Amino acid sequence: LFEVATDLFLQHGYTQVSLDQIVEHAGGSKATIYKYFGSKKGLFLAICEDRCNKFTHQVELACQQNHLDIRHNLINLLYELYHIFIDEKSVAFSRLLVQIAQGDPELAQQLYNLGPKRAHAVLSTFLQQAHLTGQIYSTRPHDSASYFFGFFHDIHWRNMVGLPVLESEAQIKDHIYYVVERFIAGHQRPLEKIQ
């Protein structure tokens, strides 16, 4: 149901797709959709939550692996998320979300809470733990998480406006390694001031 509804939303736009069309392509009944989701908007939110859960799960997995090697965790996290960010269906879905959310501030807030806010909180908690175990120095893990996710701003912007991501896979890996090295270097305990 989610896959069929998502494909229809992406192909025709949210407002142009009816529950009748979704049922016609996916099977089942409108009564079932109303029972479990309440409305087309409820179904759409459930689809968004499912997609956000998969995204946040990638962040959680990277933050749970190999706790003694933060460099390894952060490189893997950026690499996994990079592939989500450049996936054509994910890009198309992001464009659809922006389009829908512009006219519905309440939905925009719900979508932000389901995705970016949750992923940010997971990474903030991970960075706080890394600080407590001495792997990095981050007294403001929330700000550090924002800084870290800044890696995606250019990629996300390019995708949203339809510009190609020009870098090769080797360049992306090199760039990710560079970003993680700079991030870790910027999160070392500052030298004590000489009085």
Helix content: over 70%
| Overall SS class | mainly alpha
Share of residues in strands: under 5%
Terminus-to-terminus distance: 67 Å
Backbone CA Rg: 20 Å
Helical stretch tally: 10
Give unreliable regions as ranges.
none
Kindly state the number of beta strands: 0
Basic shape = elongated
Order of helices and strands: HHHHHHHHHH
What is the typical, i.e. mean, pLDDT? 88
Question: Main beta sheet: strand number and arrangement?
Answer: none
SSE arrangement:
Blueprint: H1 2-12, H2 19-26, H3 30-37, H4 40-64, H5 70-86, H6 88-102, H7 105-132, H8 141-149, H9 153-160, H10 169-185
Helix pairs in contact: 3-4, 4-5, 4-7, 5-10, 6-7, 7-8
Summarize the structure.
It is built from ten helices and no strands. The protein has helices at 2-12, 19-26, 30-37, 40-64, 70-86, 88-102, 105-132, 141-149, 153-160, 169-185.
Architecture overview:
This protein has ten helices and no strands. The protein is mainly alpha-helical and 195 residues long. Helix 3 (30-37) crosses helix 4 (40-64), helix 5 packs across helix 10 and helix 7 crosses helix 8 (141-149).
Write a concise keyword list for the protein shown above:
195 residues; single chain; elongated; mainly alpha; 75% helix
